[in-house]
Amino acid sequence: MKVLIDTDPGMDDALALSLAHKSSALEVVAVTAVTGNLPSDRTVANALRILDLLDAPAIPVAQGPLVPLGGHYPSDPFSHGSDGLAESHLPDSSRPVDGRSAAQLIVDIVDRHAGDIALCALGPLTNIAQALELDPDLPSKVSRLTIIGGSFGATPYAWSQATGDNPTSEWNVFVDPEAAALVFTAGFPMLAVGLDVATHPLINFRDGDMERLRASTRPEAQLAVRVVDFVQGRGYQSYCSLIDSVAVASLIDPGLVTTESVLCAVETEGRLTRGMTVVDRRAHHAWDDLPRIEIAVDLDYARFLDLVTAELTR
């Protein structure tokens, strides 16, 4: 499967990019960098560094805007380190940044592979929303849009592990809810992987997984070890390193994820609720004009961890 990855590296993005590159089931044909964990001038540089680490083939990599559609880039309460990559301080890359905007690259790549390409969005949806403005028919040209975004109430972790800077939101949607609202209503064949699944305690690396990663000489495995040590040293669990990999894994093996179709819209206002993904589950009087999307409600965590560990150490 051909895939374009829209990303904001970020520690978990780095491991997700590694998983996508290593998997024989996926062909990463382009990468676009979005403002999210860091501004896009830094996320694009980190994306290039990760591609170097992986000795990946030359593919186009483009940068999105420095600020979200709403014009304000919020402060992230969670740090990915001074370099955004768990203080790994990977060397600068000599790979070029594509001269096109991220949105234009998305449109061009999708046109080239129309009907035979998936989009995988690991950060805020700014670039995807801008690509929609350039080509409103974009949703009909992709086989799937898989995002890491939202919290939908399928498990308690939808709220207890909230990552946005208010009590109800997830970081990727919180950064640019205006973009998310546009993407949710555009008609993409979309799967949203939210905090419900991506921060579940069963997603934490097991002792045996860490032993395999520590014993591996692969640079991507050693990066995973550094990321896990970094987050655990700050009092977080290792799932923080794996959130974005769930989206990639669902493309590699769709059977890993249990999904549900729901009515869901993005709240763009309110101090307490900006960025909230509101699901209407009412048996009567539901607002059936809300967008209908697929959400992840469960994951085969053991198989997921087996897949990630095997690929990062291969």
Give a brief rundown of this model.
By secondary structure, the chain is an alpha/beta fold. Helix content is 38%, strand content 17%. It has helices spanning 11-22, 40-53, 102-112, 126-134, 138-141, 157-160, 171-175, 177-184, 195-198, 207-215, 219-233, 243-252, 301-313, and strands at residues 2-7, 27-33, 61-63, 117-121, 144-148, 190-193, 257-266, 277-280, 292-299.
The Rg value, from CA coordinates, equals: 18 Å
- What does the average pLDDT come to? 96
Strand content: 15-25%
Q: What pattern of helices and strands is seen along the backbone?
A: EHEHEHEHHEHHHEHHHHEEEH
Largest sheet: 9 strands, mixed
Q: How are strands sequenced across the largest beta sheet?
A: 3-2-1-4-5-6-9-7-8
What would the CATH topology be? Inosine-uridine Nucleoside N-ribohydrolase, Chain A
How much helix, percentage-wise, in residues? Answer: 25-40%
Shape: globular
Fourth-level CATH superfamily: Ribonucleoside hydrolase-like
The CATH architecture can be given as Alpha-Beta Complex
Which CATH class? Alpha Beta
What is the distance, rounded to the nearest whole angstrom, between the alpha carbons of the first and last residues?
Answer: 20 Å
Oligomer: single chain
